[in-house]
Design a protein that fits this description.
Length: 150
């Protein structure tokens, strides 16, 4: 099953619509949950990744998004520069735009989970101001779990 097809399958029964599809990220909107789902793809070109996610800031404001779901199941390891930019630059902009809860769908891959922990520790060490962001992530195995909790 293609990656975007997996999301579409898991979103059945919810009022979702596709916002954009790219090599970097696929984005879906679930109106009844006031949620934006960002499915990050395995191969990240940092410039294109940034360009794509920056487009979502005004979308978040316009649609009054409160829930941000980041689906990383397609990733094998963490791409540190994109993770750092995500937490230090983009996420604060999304919070200012109305996001109140962060949900992350993780792959079963233990190497990924380990590299995520190490990456977040490094980012917090380099950007201590991020410790004060009141948006602790909630972690899930799939979108069904996310939908049950939002």
């Amino acid at each position: 099953m293609l990656t975007s097809e997996l999301i579409e399958e898991e979103c059945k029964g919810h009022d979702y619509q596709t916002i954009l599809k790219s090599q970097q990220v696929n984005v879906f909107y679930v109106g009844s949950k006031q949620a934006l789902i960002c499915q990050v793809n395995a191969d990240i070109n940092l410039k294109k990744f940034k360009e794509t996610l920056i487009q979502l800031v005004p979308v978040t404001q316009k649609l009054k998004i409160c829930q941000l779901v980041v689906d990383r199941r397609n990733m094998f390891t963490i791409h540190f520069p994109s993770l750092e930019w995500f937490y230090a630059i983009w996420l604060p902009q999304m919070i200012k735009s109305g996001v109140r809860r962060l949900h992350i769908v993780l792959p079963e891959n233990e190497l990924f989970r380990f590299s995520l922990r190490i990456g977040k520790q490094r980012i917090l060490k380099e950007h201590p101001q991020l410790l004060h962001q009141d948006l602790p992530p909630n972690f899930y195995k799939n979108l069904k779990e996310v939908f049950q909790n939002i």
